[in-house]
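Risk register update: the risk of archive-format incompatibility is retired. Evidence:
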Amino acid sequence: MISSLSGTVLSAGLDHVVVEVGGVGLLVHTTPAAASSTRAGAQLRLATSLVVREDSLTLFGFDTAAERDLFELVQTVSGVGPRLALAMLAVHAPDPLRTAIAGNDVTALTKVPGIGKKGAERIVLELKDKVGAPAGSPGGVPSAAPVLSTDQDQVVEALVGLGWNAKQAGDAVASVTAETDGLDVAETLRAALRRLGR
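Archived output:
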C-alpha cells in the first residue's frame, strides 16, 4: 500500500496531478480543489490510497490522512467505488460530509453526481455510526484531522497499523497533544498507547 508520497509536480489537470517521485512520474487522481491548488514545479505531499484492480493500479491523493481515511471508509458501502468516493469529497469537504452522513442529510448526499436517494439512504444507514463527529460539533469528540501535524499523522498511521480505527487513533493523538506540548513522535506514540489501554 502506498500511503503517502511527496515530490515535484510535473503537471496538474482538472482532477489529477503527475508527481515525480524518485525519477518516476506518478499519476494521482485528486479532487478538483486539490488539483487546482498546485502548479507545475511545486513541491507536493499527499496522503494516498492505492486501488488495486485486476487490470489497473490507480492512485488517489488527498491533502490529509483524515480525508484519505474518509475516502476509504465510504467505499465500504455496497455500490460506492473509488470514483464515487472521490466525487463525494469533491462536492463536500470532509467535515460537511461527516455531518451529512451522521445527521441523516440525504438531500446533501444526493448533490453528489451518481448518488440517488436510495444510495444516500444506504450510505447513511451503513456509515452513520462509523464516520465520527465533525470538528466543533456539540457533544461530540472533535475531529483531530484539521490540527494534526505531519508527526501526529505518523503516530495516527502507526496506531491504525496496530489495529485501532482512524477515529480512535486520531482522538487519542489529539487528546495527548492537547494535554502535553513538545513531545516527539515516539513519546506521542507511547502516550497514545497508554491512553488506548495498552
